[in-house]
């Protein structure tokens, strides 16, 4: 026998769902536990508790397997569950268990008002709602009138086993302490029966072997689920990286487009500047041409005026050359006309 599994079996108590189920199969223990949970019902007797009873709400619906299921002499239905780990789905889980239990409460052809009541009871090794309560009793109510409870025959009860608030009565507290493996008064008859029953369960070789096989299966299943979760995490991380890469690529494309637009804008501005420069050069050329033409007119007019005054050509050429700073070639051209 695997040493780890052997120690696990030896150390397992009521907080282990397998041990809890086998202990709660005991008629007297199950009856007394229900009486302590629901003292106002004054339960006299119950049907022999059924372990791992399975119900299917619909042919294509998920089946639900109850840990401990029984009914009392009044026809009330009880589902008792040990919830070891917090999978963060407790409310939806209760809803489905209650649905399956409630379906059993409706006999074919029976009027709705004669339907039996159903109780789903969860012993949680954690605080199911993280609100600090030791016991949570759930009923439907009217939102606009919270204190108005809807009496539909469904009751959900959840116990926060690790809680030390002691909000329940001493007898119920003793049972919770047994689950949590805390010190308990040995004079409590239920505590005595529980310890005896646990010892009987631990001596049962068939149950021990079944526990080992189930533990190996659960460890394998947990490892597979861990690998699946790890794979899913890697896929999610990969998707996030792809999305991040796509966002970065998109941002780079936007930056590239922005750069291209800025380049185009710069090119347009350069071209516009070049066009303005050409226009200015053209204007300067036109002005220079105009000045040249005006100078030519003035020079020609001056030559004509000095000739009319009978000034000799040499003097005229000298005067024009100095006054207008002309070259010999330009003087020659003017007087060649």
Automatic annotation (TrEMBL):
It comes from the Bacteria. Pfam families: PDDEXK_2. Residues 240-297 form a coiled coil. Keywords: Coiled coil. InterPro entries: RpnA. This is Rpn family recombination-promoting nuclease/putative transposase. It comes from Limosilactobacillus reuteri.
């Amino acid at each position: 026998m695997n040493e780890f599994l052997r120690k696990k079996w030896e150390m397992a108590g009521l907080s282990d769902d397998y041990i809890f189920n086998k202990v709660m199969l005991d008629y007297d223990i199950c009856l007394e536990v229900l009486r302590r949970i629901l003292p106002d019902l004054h339960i006299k007797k119950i049907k022999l508790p059924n372990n791992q009873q399975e119900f299917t709400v619909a042919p294509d619906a998920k089946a639900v397997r109850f840990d401990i299921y029984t009914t009392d002499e009044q026809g009330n239905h009880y589902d008792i569950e040990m919830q070891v780990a917090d999978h963060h789905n407790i409310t939806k889980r209760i809803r489905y268990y209650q649905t399956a239990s409630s379906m059993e409460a409706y006999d074919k052809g029976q009027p709705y008002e004669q339907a039996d009541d159903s109780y789903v009871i969860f012993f949680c090794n954690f605080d199911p709602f993280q609100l600090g309560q030791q016991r949570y009793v759930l009923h439907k109510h009217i939102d606009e009138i919270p204190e108005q409870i809807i009496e539909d025959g469904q009751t959900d009860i959840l116990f926060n086993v690790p809680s030390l608030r002691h909000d329940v009565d001493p007898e119920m507290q003793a049972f919770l302490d047994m689950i949590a493996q805390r010190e308990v008064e040995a004079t409590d008859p239920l505590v005595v029966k529980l310890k005896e029953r646990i010892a009987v369960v631990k001596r049962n070789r068939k149950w021990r072997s079944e526990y080992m096989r189930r533990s190996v299966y659960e460890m394998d299943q947990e490892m597979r689920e861990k690998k699946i979760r790890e794979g899913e995490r890697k896929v999610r991380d990969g998707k996030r990286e792809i999305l991040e890469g796509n966002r970065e690529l998109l941002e780079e494309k936007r930056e590239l487009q922005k750069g291209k637009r800025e380049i185009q804008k710069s090119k347009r501005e350069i071209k516009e500047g070049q066009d303005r420069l050409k226009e200015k050069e053209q204007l300067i050329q036109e002005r220079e041409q105009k000045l040249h033409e005006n100078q030519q007119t003035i020079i020609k007019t001056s030559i004509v005026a000095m000739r009319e005054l009978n000034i000799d050509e040499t003097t005229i050429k000298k005067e024009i050359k100095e006054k207008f700073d002309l070259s010999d070639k330009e003087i020659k051209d003017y007087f060649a006309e």
